[in-house]
Design brief:
Layout: E1 7-11, H1 17-26, E2 32-36, H2 48-64, E3 69-72, H3 75-80, H4 82-88, E4 93-94, H5 97-107, E5 112-117, H6 119-124, H7 126-132, E6 139-144, H8 148-153, H9 160-175, E7 180-183, H10 192-199, E8 204-206, H11 208-223, E9 237-241, H12 245-256, E10 265-266
Parallel strand pairs: 1-2, 1-3, 2-9, 3-4, 5-6, 5-7, 7-8, 9-10
Helix pairs in contact: 1-11, 5-7, 5-11, 9-10
Length: about 280
Amino acid sequence: MLPVQPIGVFDSGVGGLTIAEEISRQLPFEKIIYFGDTAHVPYGPRSVEELTSFADKIVDFLIRHEVKAIVDACNTTSAVALPFLQEKYDIPIIGVIEPGVMDAMRVTKNRHIGIIATEATIASHAHQKAIESRGSNYRVFNQACPKFVPLVEDGKVYGPEVRSAVEEYLLPLLKANIDTLILGCTHYPFLRRVIKEVAGPEVTLVDPAVATVRELKKVLIKEKGLRGPHTHTLRSLEFYVSGDPDSFSEVGYKLVGWPELDNTRKVEVFNGGNKGGQDFD
């Protein structure tokens, strides 16, 4: 691997753009190749076997694009497929569960930590296991939020519908006296304003994106010596999806404002490789 090679990022849809944004902030000279599995979003209701198969094929796609490291920006696949991916592939693959947990344990004062995530992530108990492995005197309160990802994928991040869903999911956690809330899906930071309004100033929101990219920096710079050269003065972003590229680019632009999203391309990675092969250099 060479420093000039790009970083791969994948998610079920637009949620991983929060990670891509943070990479651009902390590592501004890096190229990014992003894959959104919009044909299969949402991931929350899917089985472990399905999720592992999806993640495996996506990682293979990114490796064929010669990335030097991969961020699994999906909490759901980070929860159920990451160990398999890290064992199978000889490339750094970083998930979002552990970094978020570490930040939450650092900031909580009363040791009551709430987790909001997809159904599959909650069912995996990945956050809870990670917390309990580091200390027994924390109380963890889990809440699946199946309405959140479809809302964000539709570009709905404010308004009465969003407020109603946020109140439905957060009120049980607030009654449990949490003082820290992990946004356990990369789609959820796009709902941050409403979540913060409902949670109130006493609750600290933990967005795993910041800590995840800190971990990526450590791997690339300190461990692998693969930091992108400063000659990359222009941001380089490539976007691929398995579903409708127009819908992804429209919603993605609304959320992060990157004009490069207009060039999003649809590719086939699940049934015999890339359609036509035209997107491989």
